[in-house]
Amino acid sequence: MMSLSKPFTIINFIFLSNLLVSPTLTLSQCRDSCGTIPINYPFALDDGCGAPQFRHMFNCSTDLFFLTPSGSYKVQSINYDKKTIIVYDPAMSTCSILQPHHDFLMTDIQSALIPPTSDTVFALLNCSIDSPVLNHYSYLCFNFSSHSCDELYGSCNAFRVFHLAANTTSPPCCFTGYDTVKFMSMNVLDCTHYTTVTNTDGLRGIGPLDWVYGIKMSFAVPDSGCERCVQSGGTCGFDTETEGSLCLCSSSSNYTRECAVGSFTAGANGVTSSILLQAFFVIVLIYQLFCPL
Ligand SMILES: *[C@@H]1O[C@H](CO)[C@@H](O)[C@H](O)[C@H]1NC(C)=O
Ligand SMILES: *[C@@H]1O[C@H](CO)[C@@H](O)[C@H](O)[C@H]1NC(C)=O
Ligand SMILES: *[C@@H]1O[C@H](CO)[C@@H](O)[C@H](O)[C@H]1NC(C)=O
Ligand SMILES: *[C@@H]1O[C@H](CO)[C@@H](O)[C@H](O)[C@H]1NC(C)=O
Ligand SMILES: *[C@@H]1O[C@H](CO)[C@@H](O)[C@H](O)[C@H]1NC(C)=O
């Protein structure tokens, strides 16, 4: 031990500083959660992370929000196995609160990549008798799991006002799918309020008070070799100029496909290489202890 030669001391210093620095650098460029909701590929909060197709769609202020042309929708949950996400429009009516309608609008890219699922039902309330869904487009309305609109008016405090006002018959209402509101604005539909109910396939025999109000959307994950990058210790991202795929390995190194495993060259601070570094450091230490020069 007394016979430590100068080169080894320098090498030790380099490895030690590398070990101390690398854990803080690793993966620090992309936030991986917002509150309690995990943010994984293809989604991201930071530009250059995730898949470019989903760029600028989320905002993590206090909570996670899904951004569309009609506003910010609070994200309730994301299921990465089933590839679904449930959002909630804080401005819409539900069984317990009556709020004036506003349109639910998505960009063309959002409609294509992350459309509402077929078990999300849009309930258009207090429609005028001239509404297209009561006339030419009446075939767009349906009853789901044996529920009718009248049940909504009857069971929900918020909607009872429609019952009372009309006295004899409640004003028309329509359960319909996303495509209807995609192609006809609420003004065209001529209904004053709306609500959305999700998981409608499982609501047979369950009353409106216990329905799940929200919009469930299904997303597709672009196939860009992300698994290979993750396995090498990186995070999937893209070049913000060209939108070409990148594997983000540390704040100082991006690779096209995967992190350069086992390369000790500048900047290769991925998880795997830092483990290899530690192993190498231990070997050097043992070598010095038992085989002094
Ligand atoms: C790596 O890519 C990210 C996302 O595009 C970018 O913000 C960062 O500056 C890049 N880092 C380097 C060293 O190129
Ligand atoms: C994020 O969402 C919140 C809540 O809707 C909003 O107030 C804020 O302006 C949004 N920020 C950005 C950058 O879009
Ligand atoms: C229901 O719709 C009519 C117009 O069709 C409107 O005058 C009325 O205020 C609406 N009811 C409520 C409670 O908003
Ligand atoms: C829905 O149910 C109500 C009440 O049971 C019924 O009057 C109405 O015709 C049904 N509508 C459709 C589209 O099946
Ligand atoms: C409802 O009808 C009853 C009797 O048919 C009538 O006395 C009452 O004034 C009506 N209420 C409204 C709000 O039209």
Automatic annotation (TrEMBL):
One of its GO terms (cellular component) is membrane. Residues 30-89 form the Wall-associated receptor kinase galacturonan-binding domain. It is a single-pass membrane protein. It holds the Pfam family GUB_WAK_bind. Keywords: Glycoprotein, Signal. Residues 214-251 form the Wall-associated receptor kinase C-terminal domain. Its EC number is 2.7.11.1. It is found in: Membrane. InterPro entries: WAK_assoc_C (IPR032872), WAK_GUB (IPR025287). It catalyses: L-seryl-[protein] + ATP = O-phospho-L-seryl-[protein] + ADP + H(+); L-threonyl-[protein] + ATP = O-phospho-L-threonyl-[protein] + ADP + H(+). This is non-specific serine/threonine protein kinase.
